[in-house]
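Milestone 3.1: sequence recovery, worked example.
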């Protein structure tokens, strides 16, 4: 049986959510542990996750390698893979890429909306592409086996990363801009280059990325998936819901504004919607993954293609992408 994998969530974690993951048959989730945190703050967030793993070993297990998805499935748990949505966690020190990889970080975005030391974000007026440090960090992430995620990056920077990386990159949570022109959604040019390079796109259920926002229907979402499959191929797409379940609206200020501005950055929500929008009715939490599967079948995908989109493609990509540095890897089995 093919696993169910979600390539991005940032929930207010709790036993209730972990149990919902199990109820929804979710075998692996890439979770955000850092937005604007520096290295030490990121380590504290890893420490917090260590406590979750200690408290709920019957529900979750930390994932270090793709094989841990199989372990999680065999033991009735969800494998948790850690990621950062900004390179602030490595500060200005390329050596911290390997350090964080050894601690379990398996994904890192090169930008979060703004210009970083590595690349340009999708909200910058000018996208200058990968910086000198960006090219070096991409090479280091390739070496250790950390996924280069360009979900919040500008077009030129994303194309640069695709071209420069020796491993296929990922866009873990975004949709086609041709379907809905959010700044975070990606052009057909980017999606074509991503597919040609062997990379992966995770479709987002976050309302700001959906045509019609919270009112987007399941049929509209699944029809968008089908059109993207025609462009990229079924083997290059998956799910990355960007589920921010149970988060207070105050968290949005940290996500968007961090410490880089004294003003409130309304970002994609706009001044009229400064907090989290309600999720579409067909995807409230992890128990609704089966509804997406049903919707994909209803727009014409085969059983095999649905299985690939819901997790099989990500499982293959994880196996190709996570590194060979196993120093300090603690055994996932309990």
């Amino acid at each position: 049986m093919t696993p169910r994998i979600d390539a991005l969530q940032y929930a207010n974690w709790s036993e209730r959510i972990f149990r919902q993951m199990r109820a929804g048959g979710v075998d692996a989730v890439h979770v955000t542990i850092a937005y604007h945190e520096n290295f030490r703050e990121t380590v504290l967030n890893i420490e917090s996750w260590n406590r979750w793993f200690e408290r709920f070993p019957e529900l979750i297990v930390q994932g270090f390698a793709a094989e841990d998805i199989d372990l999680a499935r065999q033991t009735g748990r969800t494998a948790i893979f850690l990621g950062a949505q900004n390179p602030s966690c490595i500060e200005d020190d390329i050596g911290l890429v390997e350090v964080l990889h050894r601690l379990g970080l398996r994904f890192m975005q090169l930008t979060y909306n703004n210009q970083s030391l590595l690349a340009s974000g999708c909200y910058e007026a000018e996208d200058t592409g990968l910086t000198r440090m960006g090219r070096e960090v991409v090479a280091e992430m390739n070496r250790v086996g950390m996924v280069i995620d360009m979900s919040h990056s500008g077009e030129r920077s994303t194309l640069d990363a695709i071209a420069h990386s020796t491993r296929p990159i990922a866009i873990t949570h975004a949709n086609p801009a041709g379907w809905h022109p959010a700044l975070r959604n990606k052009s057909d040019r980017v999606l074509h280059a991503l597919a040609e390079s062997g990379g992966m796109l995770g479709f987002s259920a976050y309302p700001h990325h959906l045509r019609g926002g919270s009112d987007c229907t399941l049929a509209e979402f699944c029809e968008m998936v089908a059109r993207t499959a025609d462009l990229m191929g079924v083997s290059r797409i998956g799910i990355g819901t960007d589920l921010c379940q149970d988060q207070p609206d105050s968290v949005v200020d940290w996500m968007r504004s961090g410490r880089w501005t004294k003003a409130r950055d309304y970002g994609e929500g706009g001044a009229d919607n400064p907090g989290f929008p309600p999720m579409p009715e067909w995807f409230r939490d992890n128990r609704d993954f089966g509804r997406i599967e049903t919707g994909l079948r209803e727009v014409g995908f085969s059983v095999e293609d649905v299985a690939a989109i819901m997790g099989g493609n990500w499982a293959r990509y994880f196996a190709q992408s996570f590194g060979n540095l196993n120093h300090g890897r603690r055994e996932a089995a309990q």
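The domain at 5-321 is CATH 3.20.20.140 (TIM Barrel). The beta strands are 5-9, 28-34, 60-62, 78-84, 105-109, 147-149, 170-171, 200-203, 237-239.
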